[in-house]
Amino acid sequence: MEQNKGTKLYTFLIYSENVPGLLSQITAVFTRRQVNIESLNVCASSTPGAHKYTVTANCDEHVAKMLTAQVEKRIEVLQAHYYTDDELFINETALFKLSTPVMLKNPDVGRMIRFHNARIIEVNNTYAVVEVTGITNDILSLFDTLKAMDCVLQFVRSGRICITKSRVEHLDEYLAVRESKKLAKANK
Amino acid sequence: MEKITGAEALMRALEHEGVDVLFGYPGGSIMPTYDALYDHKKTLNHILVRHEQGAVHAAQGYARVSGKVGCAIVTSGPGATNTVTGIADAMIDSTPLVVVCGQVGVAMLGTDAFQEVDVVGITSPISKWSYQIRRAEDVAWAVARAFYIAKSGRPGPVVLDFAKNAQTSLVDFEPAKVNFIRSYDPEPDVNMTDIERAAKMINNSVKPFVLVGQGVELGNAQQELRTLLEKADIPCGTTFLGLSAIPSDHRLNMGILGMHGNLGPNVMTNQCDLLIAVGMRFDDRVTGNLATYAKQAKIIHFDIDPAEFNKNVPVTLSVLGNCKETLAAVTKLVDTSKHTAWIEGFKPYNEKEYEKVIDRALHPKEGPLLMGEVIRKVSEASNNEAIMVTDVGQNQLMACRYFKFTKERSVVTSGGLGTMGFGLPAAIGATFGAPDRTVCLFVGDGGLQMTIQELGTIMEQGAPVKIILLNNNYLGNVRQWQEMFFARRYSFTPMLNPNYELIAQGYGIPAKTVIERHDLDAAIAEMLATPGPYLLQCAIKEEDNVLPMTPPGANIDEMLLEV
Ligand SMILES: Cc1ncc(C[n+]2csc(CCOP(=O)(O)OP(=O)(O)O)c2C)c(N)n1
Ligand SMILES: [Mg+2]
């Protein structure tokens, strides 16, 4: 089996009908296969009525395939695919709440914020709020640096969001096929 | 339009789906529905069980033999949680069910109200679809969708969680029809490229072997399977659930696959050059050690569930679709062929197993009764035409090994979940699903007591279940493992049994006990000749073992013929 090929971070893009209770069905599939979800984002997609789940998890490719198949098996899931990072445009957002007195004392803090293209969105004499977007490693490296400077009061990082590089829109194709099947059935 | 209650709407929706039998048990949150049922007694035959687990197993037995959707109806809270085992059992064995549970009204949901339990949350992971009906307006749609999902594609159990307010409020009812769901495709188009590749692989094979699963019965593809086997002259083995998809005595049926199956098919699995799996899922009880399973062979997998492909066993080619269509399409392209030498190759293994195991199990000269001889005699006395229902344990393994089948849809056993207590209620359901057939239940002394209360249902309905109690005074299957793998340390497997004849008498069910071999034939004849239910207790050798056996985790072709 492919099981021993070693694990990798995979991104699962899952499209479903907009019905309640699906999130727990999807996460249950991962839990059952003993795969920890690293990040999760759920929102409406560009296709009316369809929801998009973006899930990242470490596993080997065989498990990624099985997870995809098991998720797709849930009645209201339209489609599920798994991707590696090179197949995607990826983004994450992070917010930092930093101590203003420490920032004033240590000019390196401001330097690091500018170096990472982070944006200051609020400052008062107690704290500053800084926003940065990028990929996980860049964000975590800024966090490590600031943490070492002892100025981080709060930190939060969003789940990954991404868009496929492919020139084919799988969901649209799928829906078109389903629509024609529906018509064929109705005409029968 | 006349307004009716949601409960009445449920009745009409069930009738619209062609339901004629319901297995159920009433209670607070489903009372409006039971009140509506009172006016539909003529069309919806409600069978009052004695425990909700029994309702679901009975619906399973009904569904398995009839090919229709089985229906159960229960109250909220404990009524609903009592159905969980049956739902899980139906899920893993692909049995189409609709289970309707009462629920508290929506205003009380989430408040820990009396007999409120998160039914959708509990049953989602163990059902094909689980849905809460919160408004009477949704009844028609939800019921139509439930039946469509339960019976289409790979069948499975569906749960409808019916809130009390939706049962009582008024609605304009019009039956709905669902035969399409955008996000769910149970009728995938047959891919002709795959069919051509499959045919080519079969034509090039010198030693092909077919694995027959329940998918053949679920897809009604018994004839298509036979046509393929006979045209290309391919031997086959069956899973437990696929046992009656092909007659036991068919020239090309080599026997049972897996841990307690037959030697030939298991050995030949690891010698064939092409393994053709049809409607089966490579369960670990069938494959044994995956690392050595059919490594020498190319594998083609026919299935309707894409999630089964490459799940346990990597395959060379997967053919998606209803095997009724895919097998027929492949058969057109395969050459008429003969594999005489290859088929002859099974013979020495069959002979060896016959000599070491089967002959001893069927024709003991002395000592206490053995399960095998009882089962084969019952089978033959019913002309091998009966429906075999089993519980779980040695009784099940022996029944599957020694009962013989000439008719389709004749196996009702808990395969994937191995649910003790399944047998008695499932047999009741089978008598309703196939009223013209003889239903023989083989059950152990342990499993019978797990759902023994359903003797009450049998009594009330006069359900003609022929109960063959194979009493070995042990939780026999566990005892066998203790003997083989735990140094004979019989930890809590001996059991003090009640007087079963007296119990049967309490329920007004005729009963007899057979101890001596020379009384067996007459007792079986009497049981089959007695109209209605019957309990035949057989005093079975206490420490007998089911053989041959592939020890758990061992290679499938390394079966033990003796302990
Ligand atoms: C609900 C449930 N509990 C426990 C088991 C484990 N188990 C499998 S077989 C078996 C023994 C069954 O004993 P009995 O019903 O007397 O059948 P026998 O094996 O003796 O024929 C047990 C306890 C099970 N399969 N199901
Ligand atoms: Mg026993």
Write the layout of secondary structure elements.
The complex is a heterodimer of chains A (188) and B (563).
Chain A: E1 8-17, H1 22-32, E2 37-44, E3 50-59, H2 61-73, E4 77-83, E5 88-99, H3 100-105, H4 107-115, E6 119-123, E7 127-134, H5 136-148, E8 152-157, E9 161-164, H6 170-187
Antiparallel strand pairs in A: 1-3, 1-4, 2-3, 5-7, 5-8, 5-9, 6-7
Chain B: E1 3-5, H1 6-16, E2 21-24, H2 31-37, E3 45-48, H3 52-66, E4 70-74, H4 78-81, H5 84-92, E5 97-103, H6 119-123, E6 129-133, H7 139-151, E7 157-163, H8 164-168, E8 170-172, H9 192-204, E9 208-212, H10 215-218, H11 222-232, E10 236-238, E11 253-256, H12 263-269, E12 274-278, H13 284-287, E13 298-303, E14 317-320, H14 323-333, H15 340-344, H16 347-362, H17 371-381, E15 387-390, H18 394-402, E16 411-412, H19 423-433, E17 439-444, H20 445-448, H21 455-461, E18 465-471, H22 476-485, H23 500-506, E19 511-514, H24 520-529, E20 534-539
Parallel strand pairs in B: 2-3, 2-4, 4-5, 5-7, 6-7, 9-10, 9-12, 10-11, 12-13, 13-14, 15-16, 15-17, 17-18, 18-20, 19-20
Antiparallel strand pairs in B: 1-8
Helix pairs in contact in B: 1-2, 1-7, 3-5, 3-19, 9-14, 11-14, 17-18, 17-24
The structure holds thiamine diphosphate and magnesium ion (MG).
The site of thiamine diphosphate has 20 residues of chain B, from helix 18, helix 20 and helix 22.
